[in-house]
Design goal:
By secondary structure, this protein is mostly helical. The protein contains 7 helices and no strands.
Length: 144
């Protein structure tokens, strides 16, 4: 019985060990979030096998889209906090730019929500060299 439980939960234990080890070493690494996610998913998988409840795995997979929404919210909040604390510069806008260039930021998951054309104004203005800004219509379309 103990060996069976060890085999069921071994993948979760491996990722749990990696999470604890890396979190104690450096808590701000992104891989810690991945280790924790895999720990939770594999623990739910182990519980579903042990107690013969297959719907537990569905709860874990249903949590992944909510994690994407949480990522968008935290990136936005982080951008505002850093810009307020440190001042406006390109390096402080990187979390917000990541959000703008991500697939979720450019193409919302709901078809009824449409981003205005000005939503990509800031990333386009920062990505274009100064000589091309006039030709892209950012400053004035007649300048080309």
């Amino acid at each position: 019985m103990l060996l069976t439980l060890l085999l069921i939960y071994f993948p979760a234990l491996v990722f749990g060990f990696l999470f604890v080890k890396n979190y104690r070493k450096e808590p701000r690494q992104f891989r810690n979030a991945l280790y924790f996610l895999l720990l939770c998913l594999l623990a739910l998988y182990g519980l579903s096998i042990q107690f013969e409840l297959p719907w537990l795995v569905l709860i874990g997979f249903a949590a992944i889209p909510f994690g994407t929404v949480a990522l968008v919210v935290f990136l936005t909040a982080n951008t505002f906090v850093v810009v307020k604390r440190e001042g406006l510069s390109l390096s402080h806008l990187l979390p917000g730019l990541l959000l703008c260039f991500s697939d979720f930021g450019v193409h919302p998951p709901v078809d009824s929500v449409h981003l205005p054309d000005s939503a990509l104004f800031v990333p386009a203005a920062l990505a274009a060299p100064a000589s091309e800004r006039h030709c892209r219509g950012i400053v004035h379309k007649a300048a080309c």
